[in-house]
Design brief:
The chain is α/β, with parallel strands linked by helices. The protein is built from nine helices and 19 strands.
């Protein structure tokens, strides 16, 4: 393992690898990524990998749009020899109350003003997109045809290979056990395979971001929470878009190999690092989804699993430097949306680290907003 680096990035998920690629692409030498397990072993390889631009806040809309534009050309930009499986089948977001419907109307107008081509749909129009949608109890839907889904493993690999071609060193199965800070400045990291001296450390450790921040003596207001997900057997293509509902607490998408993935949150989840998966989720998920998409009751589930959401108080990520420790940067707290923001995270973090003007103004994502 090398002994010194210009930048050390902790975490081999979509965020860490996107940051590494963007730094190297801007000419930074000696960029190192440290990953305690295999690449995408954290939330990235466990996620729904849905990409939506339909958000209610300007920042999330802009982060998602920047990322979505990148995903459309990712294969070429990253010179990937495989297929990242970007399926732009849209997101169909269902409203089940008048209040939700009114809010969605405002959201669509706002999204359109930012160049996001979302639309408000009647239930009949929604059924043209998903003919077997059970609209009982629903009010309306919104749809953005440019939203979609990717394969998170291939996407991560595409970034990793592109980064390595540009000279980034990726050390897998290498765990950071401490961060060396002297006089308020980053001096290096300690790993289970040796130490690396550096003046810049990026915390992109996903569900473990608070543990890494702790090593640098920084308290960040995030917590981790388990989220579960499942996949069915592959069947013939029946579902174009991601179907999702906030009030019914579900998302569901057919991926290119034919399997249907779906997930939902649980408000009783404790704040911890468990990634086990259980019966309660399976029971709730199947009951909820078969009400809205009845034919799925005939499809067999083949696997369920879980990963961590790393959550901030305002559900928006923390991106940028930590004022109290020079050279320490955060790309954390994605609150369940970090895969779709991956490209934007890489671009914006590289710009911040290099002191450049950022493509989007991101000062409002600084850690100090929580002071
Ligand atoms: P991670 O992918 O978690 O990567 C962090 C890495 O850091 C890990 O690989 C970990 O092993 C490593 N690490 C931790 N500690 C150390 C250490 N001490 N030393 C070295 N390495 C370390 N997002 C979306 O955009 N769309 C979705 O549809 C979506 N669905 C989701 C569904 C589920 C069930 C879950 C759990 C998440 C979902 N997310 C989704 C959220 C998304 O997965 C995350 O926000 C995103 O993957 C975060 O990427 P990351 O690179 O920041 O973190």
């Amino acid at each position: 393992m090398i002994k010194t680096a210009e930048v050390v990035i902790i975490g081999g998920g979509i965020s860490g690898l996107s940051i590494a690629y963007n730094l190297a692409n801007k000419g930074v030498k000696d960029v190192v990524v440290l990953e305690k397990s295999y690449l995408a072993s954290g939330s990235t390889g466990r996620c729904g990998a849905g990409i939506r631009q339909q958000w209610g806040t300007e920042m999330n809309c802009r982060l998602a749009k920047l990322s979505c534009d990148f995903f459309e050309n990712a294969k070429e930009e990253l010179e990937y020899d495989g297929d990242i499986e970007f399926k732009q089948g849209g997101y169909l977001i269902l409203s089940s109350t008048e209040r939700e419907h009114e809010q969605f109307k405002k959201n669509v107008a706002f999204q359109n003003s930012l160049g996001i081509p979302s639309k408000l749909l009647t239930l009949d129009e929604a059924k043209e997109i998903v003919p077997f949608l059970n609209t009982d109890g629903l009010v309306s839907a919104t749809y953005c045809k440019k939203d979609g889904h990717l394969n998170p493993f291939y996407t991560t690999e595409a970034y990793a290979k592109a980064a390595e071609r540009l000279g980034v060193k990726i050390y897998k199965f290498t765990e950071v056990i401490d961060i060396i800070v002297e006089n308020g400045k980053i001096k290096g990291v300690k790993t289970n395979k040796g130490d690396i001296s550096t003046n810049i450390v990026v915390n992109a450790a996903g569900g473990y971001s608070q543990v890494i921040a702790d090593m640098a003596g920084v308290d960040i207001p995030v917590y981790s929470e388990r989220h579960q997900i499942l996949v069915t057997e592959p069947i013939e293509p029946i579902l174009g878009p991601m179907v999702m509902s906030f009030s019914l607490n579900l998302y569901c998408q057919q991926v290119p190999h034919g399997g249907i993935i779906m997930g939902r949150g649980d408000e009783n989840e404790p704040r911890d690092f468990r990634v086990t998966s259980g019966w309660h989720f399976l029971d709730e998920m199947t009951k909820t989804i078969t009400k809205i998409l009845p034919p799925l009751k005939n499809v067999r589930i083949i696997r369920q699993w879980a990963g961590l959401y790393n959550i901030t108080p305002d559900r928006q990520p923390i991106l940028g430097p930590v004022d109290e420790v020079e050279g320490f940067y955060l790309a954390v707290g994605f609150s369940g949306h970090g895969f779709m923001f991956g490209p934007a995270t890489g671009i914006l973090m590289a710009e911040k680290i290099l002191g450049e003007e950022t493509t989007l103004p991101i000062d409002m994502l600084h850690l100090n907003r929580f002071e």
